[in-house]
Specification:
heterodimer, A: 402 residues, alpha+beta, Helix Hairpins, Immunoglobulin-like, Cytochrome Bc1 Complex, Chain D, domain 2, 3 domains, 11 helices, elongated, B: 535 residues, mainly alpha, 15 helices, 0% strand, disordered N terminus, oxidoreductase activity (chain B)
């Protein structure tokens, strides 16, 4: 522990010095000192505005602090034993009210101009509905050019594996959750380059076309923020906010963002990754996705309990473990290990129902998981953590469930 | 810290100057209650500071090492609540209790029994809140403490709030009752208890800033009470104020909260303006520049503070016209704030300056508060705020105005008036150590937060992407250093309370002005039984 601290201190100090000079172009580059210029025209304008205002406040600050320091040196008692007695000066008072006011107007004019521009979401070519969930995003493609019936939607989850971020040094007390307890004292795997930023399914958008985002939430307030697109917009349950981005051609690539409004336990664990592709690539991609969506869910039965358990374990880790515990011991959600609910046959139908339709704080998963995934995870929950019912639920059973 | 009747042989004193536990429990004496408030706020400062240490330990390196993200959220929440409502506000009330009667030549606060009550509610209010945290850390099953941020936005705090949210609601109600009673007491005292000849425009600026603060408190604390009551009924009585599914509006919560919350930040900073306006003239040996304009600037800030609240909510999707209005008003509020800073500089100008401990803290306040004010002006520029909002840039901004602003000024006040409160001079050596360690560590702690914020690190994050790691390491080091430095002040305060140190004369600071310096040090249990004569 100690050696890594010293190591980090040395690395930190060096990079602090270097980062002042270099200008990182990639969001995942090491520490940057300034606001990112981003890739859109708007984000560039915001950065220009930021630079202007930063210069203005720096000059004002240096002026004021300069006067204070000058006074501290020149008007200290050793130098100036007899204080002046003045305590009023009307002209001075008027001046330092009026001059700041004029400076403010000079700042307000460009700020207003950028704000008006940002507000204009008209004439977009692609509309994507962005929905915040605890703790993931979903993207639904609504319209593209003349196509009003795309029907493509998917969820986007954090791809960083929990072993990379669960590195507890203590157990119990302040560290109450089970997943991590097992890992006390274990060597942490090396963190990926895009640690806490990578997702399983990226939002894909075309370059050179205006994309309108309709931002909303399914539960609490989240905030959709890709810094390189300039600005964030809150995702509020029951309301739809609009924002937009136009990434110029030639700037294709992946841009990362993070949720920017406290949304509960895993607020820091729901990143945003946007893949900007050329319009031709986008057309191909969307056609492929449409075809996949049109073919309906995969209802091929599992070959046996083992296959269902294997798939179920993966689904459980990404969708259930955060609330129900990695070992089914419960947490925010109810436990499964050895409970009547997960072991008695009379609860089987209810078990499927809660997953499909939700109940109280438990969200409905029919939109997030395929029938195959739900079947696999119910099978897993009834046959793992010491449970041993032998129940094998098939995708068709879930698909038939209302 | 004040001496009991033992040192004061006025014949009727021993009837109503009890000793021991009863002296503090039943006290109606403004000095004793002021002392209670000050000790309480310092205890809360240490408790809230400990929570900040937990936060900074977790953020020292990427990955979750010490607490789980759920407990991390509880720490950020309760740290904010304890610091705002437990440390800064009671500290300024304590200063008001001690100093306002002494400054205006009154024998005591106007409503002494209410004064006692308003203090003794507080330990219970915070007891409830801290109980929730202790249960979460050590209780069976670790039931969650409030975990929705000190701003407790709905629906995170309503439909999705933990069971302890109800403890939080009760606790906030009690803090609010205490604040309102304290504020009423200040207003009544200032309007009715001034010594003959002490006209309003002769009052020390500290009294003025506190009078205006008291009006702000009376205006907005009921709004806070309304917000938590609406939460309560949403949670338990089937209403849907903040639930869109029932026809309500989660954004309404933010409007109600910030209508309280913005004046609240001025509630925390206006008394600081008063403190610094007392200290700078004393050590510049020159009268305060522009007294009248200081009073008007304070009043303007207070009035404007009611029409800027939505600048905390630029990203919720307000109409363009609303956004522009709040942007312009927010920019405007920097004008009277600037006037105050310029007045302090003009007070120092061509004075005969010495740099005793109170002056050191006061100058640090002026410079570092101005830093926070300037980043505040940057945040007012709405299009850029869309980038800054909810990042560490905001965290840097409000810690500059609240820690190096409000708290530094409270330390300035403590070093300035400790001789009057305790009768001994605070240790110079320990005081210097406390000042320099705090000054350097606070900047190491808060300045790099600007950079991680600009680089894009959202606030209230239990874990972060790797590019933020280097700054966070240094921020954490600054945090531990700042936290430890405050232990030095604990020693300073205990030494003064135990009367260890050089005895203080009635007026220990050569250039100090004001009635408080005309009574002996320590201030006797009862002062100004006969009103002083005001020139």
């Amino acid at each position: 522990m100690q050696s890594t601290l010293f190591h980090r201190a040395a690395v930190g100090l060096t990079s602090l010095m270097i980062s002042g000079m270099t200008f990182a172009s990639d969001w995942t580059e090491r520490s940057n000192l300034d606001l990112r210029p981003g890739v859109t025209a708007v984000s560039q304008e915001i950065q220009d505005l930021h630079t202007t205002v930063l210069w203005i406040v720096t000059v004002i600050g240096l002026l004021v602090f300069g006067l204070i320091v000058f006074s501290m040196i020149r008007h200290r008692r050793a130098k100036n034993p007899n204080p002046a007695t003045f305590h009023e000066h009307v002209l001075l008072e008027v001046l330092w009210t009026v001059i700041p006011f004029v400076i403010l107007i000079a700042m307000a004019v460009p700020a207003t101009r950028v704000l008006v521009k940002l507000d204009d979401t008209a004439e977009s070519e692609l509309t994507v509905k962005v929905t915040g969930y605890r703790w993931k995003w979903s993207y639904e493609y609504l319209t593209y050019e003349d196509d009003n019936d795309i029907g493509v939607s998917f969820f986007s989850n954090l791809a960083t594996p929990p072993e990379q971020y669960n590195n507890p040094v203590l157990a119990g007390g302040l560290f109450p959750y089970g997943t991590a307890k097992d890992r006390v004292g274990q060597e942490a795997p090396e963190k990926d380059h895009n640690y806490q930023l990578e997702v399983d399914n990226k939002l894909v958008i075309p370059s050179g076309q205006k994309v309108r985002f309709l931002v909303t939430s399914d539960d609490v307030i989240h905030s959709f923020w890709v810094p390189d697109f300039g600005g964030k917009k809150d995702a509020i349950p029951g309301f739809v906010n609009e924002t937009w981005a136009l990434v110029p051609e030639g700037k294709e690539g992946t841009y990362y963002g993070q949720c920017a409004e406290l949304c509960g336990k895993n607020h820091a664990f729901m990143p945003i990754a946007v893949e900007v592709v050329t319009q031709a690539e986008f057309r191909d991609w969307i056609a492929e996705e449409k075809e996949k969506a049109a073919s309906g869910p995969d209802l091929t039965p599992f070959s046996g309990l083992d296959q269902a358990m294997e798939e179920g374990e993966q689904v459980y880790a990404s969708a259930c473990a955060l609330c129900h515990g990695a070992n089914g011991e419960g947490g925010i959600g109810l436990p499964f290990a050895g409970t009547d609910f997960a072991t008695k046959s009379e609860y089987l139908n209810e078990h499927i129902d809660v997953l499909v339709n939700g109940r109280a704080a438990m969200p409905a998963f029919k939109a997030q998981l395929t029938p195959r995934q739900i079947a696999a995870v119910v099978t897993y929950e009834r046959n793992a953590f010491g449970n041993d019912t032998g129940d094998l639920i098939q995708p068709a059973d879930v698909n038939d469930h209302e | 810290m004040s001496t009991a009747a033992a040192t004061h042989d006025d014949h009727h004193d021993h009837h109503h100057a009890p000793t021991g536990l009863k002296r503090w429990l039943f006290s109606t004496n403004h000095k004793d209650i002021g002392t209670l408030y000050l000790w309480f706020s310092f205890a809360m400062f240490l408790v809230g500071g400990f929570m900040a240490m937990v936060i900074r330990a977790e953020l020292l390196e990427p990955g979750m090492q010490f607490v789980d993200p759920e407990f991390f959220n509880q720490m950020t929440t309760v740290h904010g609540l304890v610091m705002v409502f437990g440390a800064v506000m009671p500290a300024t009330v304590g200063l008001a209790n001690w100093m306002i009667p002494l400054m205006i030549g009154a024998p005591d606060m106007a409503l002494p029994r209410m004064n006692n009550w308003s203090f003794w509610i507080l330990p219970f209010a915070f007891g409830i809140l801290i109980f929730a945290v202790l249960m979460s850390a050590f209780g069976a099953g670790n039931p969650s403490a409030p975990n929705f941020g000190w701003t407790f936005y709905a629906p995170l705090s309503t439909k999705y709030g933990p069971a302890s949210t109800d403890l939080f609601i009760l606790s906030v109600h009690m803090m609010g009752i205490s604040s309102i009673m304290g504020a009423i007491n200040v207003v009544v005292t200032v309007f009715n208890m001034r010594a003959p000849g002490m006209t309003l425009m002769k009052m020390p600026l500290f009294v003025w800033t506190w009078l205006i603060t008291a009006f702000l408190l009376i205006a907005v604390i009921p709004v806070l009470a309304g917000a938590v009551t609406m939460m309560l009924t949403d949670r338990h009585f089937g209403t849907s104020f903040f639930d869109a599914a029932g026809g309500g509006d989660p954004v309404l919560f933010q409007h109600v909260f910030w209508f309280f919350g913005h004046p609240e930040v001025y509630i925390m900073i206006l008394p600081s303006f008063g403190i610094v306006s007392a200290i700078i003239p004393a050590f510049a040996r020159k009268p305060l520049f522009g007294y009248a304009s200081m009073v008007y600037a304070t009043a303007s800030i207070a009035l404007l503070s009611f029409v800027v609240w939505a600048h905390h909510m630029f990203t919720v999707g307000m109409p363009l016209a609303g956004t522009l209005f709040f942007m312009y008003m927010t920019m405007l509020i920097s004008v009277p704030t600037g006037v105050k800073v310029f007045n302090w500089v003009a007070t120092m100008w061509r004075g005969s300056l010495t740099f005793e401990l109170p002056m050191k803290w006061a100058i640090a306040f002026v410079i570092l508060f101005t830093c926070g004010g300037l980043s505040g002006l940057m945040l007012a520029i709405t299009p850029v705020d869309f980038q800054y909002h909810d990042t560490y840039f905001v965290v840097a901004h409000f810690h500059y105005v609240l820690v190096t602003g409000a708290i530094f000024s409270i330390f300035a006040a403590a070093y300035y008036w400790l001789p009057k409160w305790s009768g001994v001079m605070p240790s110079k050596l320990l005081g210097e150590l406390h000042f320099w360690n705090s000054l350097i560590s606070a900047n190491l702690l808060f300045f790099p937060m600007h950079f991680v914020g600009l680089a894009g690190m959202p606030r209230r994050y239990a874990d972060y992407a790797l590019q933020f790691a280097d700054y966070n390491f240094w921020i954490s080091i600054g945090g531990f250093w700042f936290g430890l430095s405050q232990v030095i002040f604990l020693i300073v305060a205990i030494r003064c309370a135990m009367k260890k140190g050089e005895p203080a004369p009635a007026k220990p600071w050569e250039g100090a002005e004001g009635l408080e310096w005309e009574v002996p040090s320590p201030a006797p249990f009862h002062t100004f039984d006969t009103p002083p004569v005001i020139k």
